[in-house]
Amino acid sequence: MRPVAAAGGGAIRGTSVDAPDAYQRSVWWLRPWLGVSRDRIVRCVRQFELATGWQAVDDPSNTDQSLARGMIRGALAPLISKHWPGWVPNLARHAEQAQEASALLDEYGCLLLEQIGDSDTTLDLRRWRALTSPQQSLVLRTWLARLSLQMPSQRRLAELCRQLNQVHAFGHDRVLLWRQSGCEIRCIRGKIHLQVTI
Predict the structure, then answer these.
(1) What angle (nearest 5°) sits at the alpha carbon of residue 185, between those of residues 183 and 190?
(2) 148: left (phi over 0), alpha (psi -120 to 50) or beta
(3) How many other C-beta atoms can be found within 10 angstroms of the C-beta atom of residue 44?
(4) Which domains, and CATH codes, for the chain?
(5) 182 dihedral zone (left: phi>0; alpha: psi -120 to 50; beta)
(6) Is the pTM of this model over 0.85?
(7) For residue range 176-193, what is the model confidence (pLDDT) as tens digits?
(8) Contact at 8 Å (CB) between 172 and 190?
(9) CA 29 – CA 36 distance, rounded (Å)
(10) Phi–psi pair at 107, nearest 5 degrees
(11) CA distance 111 to 105
């Protein structure tokens, strides 16, 4: 299990495991077997091998304990299972709940974005500044995600929010320029403009 690539670096997203389907960086990732245990998958593969003669290829790096995933699977997971046998289904349940919370947060971010967006690449600064601090961050993360742009770190996002909140006269007196991988964000005459630079 791996953390989902954070759409905004939020704690809820950070606790989620890979979703059954996810759109990240212009690619759809489909994982239809996430809810199926490894033991069950291995049994099915072995039965298929006996019936057809086909043989699966085992990736040796999966059990290489010099790598993090091999160490977790070969040493750490069995030790945890010995002391807390129910940890796997418990973790899966919490991950599903985190995934649901993340989906709700995404929906809320889209609703807020619709309220303050003038276009796909322009937001109204006055309406954005009327939001609470968490809502401001959520809108900017949702905006970048909708355009399939790389997410800034939490520190960088906080810095952008600070600059947008400190622009005097709602952006009429000076031009703000904030560069992020793949885009530039400017504040001009009360509007937040995003230009894709990829």
Answers:
(1) 155
(2) left
(3) 12
(4) 11-95 (3.40.50.620), 116-196 (3.30.465)
(5) left
(6) no
(7) 889 988 999 998 888 999
(8) yes
(9) 17
(10) -65, -40
(11) 10
